[in-house]
Amino acid sequence: MKVLLLKTQATLAFVFPKNIAKLVKAGEETELLVGVKNDGESSLNVVAIKASIHLPVDHRLLVQNLTAQIFNNGSVPASAQATFPYIFAVSKFLQPGSFDLVGTIIYEIDEHPYQSTFFNGTVEVVESVGFLSIESVFLVTLGIALLVLLGLWIHGQVQNLSKVQNLFALFVWKHYDKNLEFIMCTHL
Q1: Within 10 Å of residue 19's Cβ, how many Cβ atoms?
Q2: DSSP letter, residue 150
Q3: Are residues 32 and 96 in the same domain?
């Protein structure tokens, strides 16, 4: 859990409730809880929570904008605290690896809009665990194709070897058929 203090007398905290390691499965929903503590004298109204995925090597490169969660009644009275769920899913086509997740909360105090980043850190995107993955199907198909090619190559080598033996026997028969002793010795 990380806590951020804001100039507007609000304190933000976040937690991945079922995911301490911050592993995000591609194509599946991930839950993030955002806690807001209103230390001010005015009511705070949470409008929305949004997030985006960026490349860790260059934060300017946006990988994916995630869904914004809009709250119609996200009021936090003065000296109170509340928790807001944010559920997001990265694309199922996103390659596994480390990415930067930037989470932003949009809120109002006395009808003045504010925006604060509550999470700016690295998450690990992993492939969703399923019976078949694209990589496993590819590897099995590649393995079968290589075995078939190996079998065809071995079959061709055996055919060539038997042709050579047949030609050798024919050559010996045509040239030495008068000498029965030599032919009998070659076939023993």
Answers
A1: 14
A2: H
A3: yes
